[in-house]
Write a structure and sequence with these properties.
- By secondary structure, the chain is α+β, with helices and mostly antiparallel strands.
- The chain has a single domain, classed as Arc Repressor Mutant, subunit A, CATH 1.10.10.
- The chain is built from 3 helices and 5 strands; from the N terminus they run E-E-E-E-H-H-H-E.
- The strands form 2 sheets. A 3-stranded antiparallel β-sheet has the order 2-3-4. The chain has a two-stranded antiparallel sheet with strand order 1-5.
- Helix 2 packs across helix 3.
- The chain is globular, with a radius of gyration of 13 Å.
- The N and C termini lie close together (10 Å).
Length: 92
């Protein structure tokens, strides 16, 4: 099992994608069903393109949410991506 580091480049696994429906709740479609995305979940998953590193994602979210505690953003993004990895939704 890979370990998530700042240089890791998370990418959605084949068969996983964001639902593109305006006006509906954010959902991540996976082979076994769907995961409802809350809070910044969609913004994180949108950046899981195999090009952005974990450090890039954290940096962009810190810029987008300057009033939020920077260490909290880093912790929450890391925890969220590790959970998606455990569910076999992303690789890094």
């Amino acid at each position: 099992m890979s370990e998530l580091t700042g240089a890791s480049q998370p990418k959605l696994r084949p068969g996983c994608r964001l639902r593109e429906s305006a006006g509906e709740s954010d959902m991540l479609l996976i082979p076994e069903g769907a995961l409802r995305l809350a809070g910044t979940g969609r913004k994180i998953v949108e950046r899981c393109d195999g090009q952005h590193t974990l450090d890039d994602i954290v940096r962009e979210l810190k810029a987008e949410y300057p009033s939020m505690e920077p260490s909290r953003i880093e912790t929450e993004v890391t925890t969220f991506l590790e959970r998606l990895h455990q569910k076999r939704v992303i690789d890094f």
